[in-house]
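in:
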């Protein structure tokens, strides 16, 4: 049955309910056939499927909310990359989507683990945090006052594997990138 109460952790529920249609199944009843079909050998197991019913990811056991969200996001992007490559697309850039359907804490968790996108997916990573609410809410400022926070997060993103920065303040970002490059030679 469809349920918006599948995930007891609020941050996971908010993330999953915005992106997927959660189903809660009784493993003793209707879940038995699906468990066999998808090779579920332990509980809890989360099977993430796309709109066509194809398995995107499968996770077993307990994990904290941020780790679960990270695994779903990387697995979902990995499946999309696989499909694009099968279609012959080779010029691919990963944009993990800072700010889109994520809380401020989820955005910072993604920033803390940004290197996973590059190492797990093998494609350049684009980061667009310029003037985002993760900065303005955290610092209690307006978007027009967010340049120092933006430059700080852009620099952190570069240290964690970002290849491309999407920015509003180009000359300031170029200076920050140049300083980063000079300090990492």
């Amino acid at each position: 049955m469809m349920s918006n109460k599948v995930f007891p952790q609020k941050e996971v529920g908010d993330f999953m309910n915005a992106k997927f249609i959660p189903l809660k199944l009784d493993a003793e009843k209707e879940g038995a056939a699906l468990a066999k079909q998808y090779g579920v050998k332990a509980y809890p197991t989360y099977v993430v499927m796309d709109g066509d019913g194809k398995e995107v990811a499968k996770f077993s056991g307990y994990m904290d909310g941020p780790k679960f969200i990270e695994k779903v996001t990387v697995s979902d992007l990995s499946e999309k990359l696989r499909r694009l490559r099968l279609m012959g697309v080779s010029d691919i850039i990963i944009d993990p989507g800072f700010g889109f359907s994520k809380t401020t804490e989820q955005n910072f968790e993604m920033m803390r683990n940004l290197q996973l996108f590059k190492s797990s997916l093998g494609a350049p990573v684009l980061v667009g945090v310029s003037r985002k609410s993760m900065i303005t809410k955290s610092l209690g400022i307006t978007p027009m006052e967010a340049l120092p926070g933006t430059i700080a997060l852009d620099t952190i993103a570069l240290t964690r594997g970002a290849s491309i920065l999407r920015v509003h303040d180009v000359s300031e970002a170029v200076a920050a990138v140049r300083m980063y490059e000079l300090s990492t030679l």
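note: The chain has a mean pLDDT of 82.
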